[in-house]
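Case study 2.
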Amino acid sequence: MKRQAGFTLTELLIVMVIAAILATIAVPSYREAVRRSDRRAAQAAMMEIANRERQAFVSNRAFQDETDLAFTLPAELEGKYTYTITVDNDASPPTFEIDFDAIGAQAADGDLSLDSAGVKTPAEKW
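Prediction:
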């Protein structure tokens, strides 16, 4: 009797089923890890904006809006977040609020906010 070389159809199907099961577990976990990573990058960008705002306040005695601050969103956040800076220089003391609105695939993670008093919302995301 000759010995057959190769795999049987049953063996190939078992391997495909195992690969499919692993993929259904791994892909959502990977996507969630990417979302968390992008959230951390957004938080770092928000902290940078807050530092620039404080430096501008020391120099000019007023906080700056998006156009005056001239901050460019990092490339890794393009298409994932849009941001706005709301400034109230007439308040006592003057205040600012930085809002990052999640878009695209990042929208499942939610929006982020940071104000001049250091209040970070939503708290569970920070």
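The chain has a mean pLDDT of 93.
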